[in-house]
Design goal:
Elements (H helix, E strand, L loop, with lengths): L2 E8 L7 H10 L3 E6 L4 E7 L3 H5 L4 E6 L14
Antiparallel strand pairs: 1-3, 1-4, 2-3
Length: about 80
């Protein structure tokens, strides 16, 4: 089992209660790294086998694995 970086979108009705949603996410196993109150987004990690638990938290609109991109160095042939 490995940790997965995730981004959680909080629905509009629960943005004012973001701290309660974050507590529920933590209780579901998420290790919160960042809360972006203004846009209703919470970022963190969770064990990959427990990601489905986050979708069941009240106030959660969406849960997505974080994506990262690696660009080639500027001097490489592929740009």
């Amino acid at each position: 089992m490995s940790d997965l970086e995730v981004t959680v979108l909080v629905d509009d009705q629960h943005r004012e209660q973001l701290s309660e949603v974050v507590e529920a996410l933590q209780a579901a196993g998420m290790r919160v790294a960042q809360c972006m109150q203004q846009i209703g987004v919470v970022a963190g990690t969770i064990e990959s086998t427990q990601m489905d638990r986050l979708c069941q938290v009240e106030g959660v609109a969406a849960v997505e694995p974080s994506q990262s991109y690696q660009l080639e160095p500027p001097d490489s042939e592929v740009q």
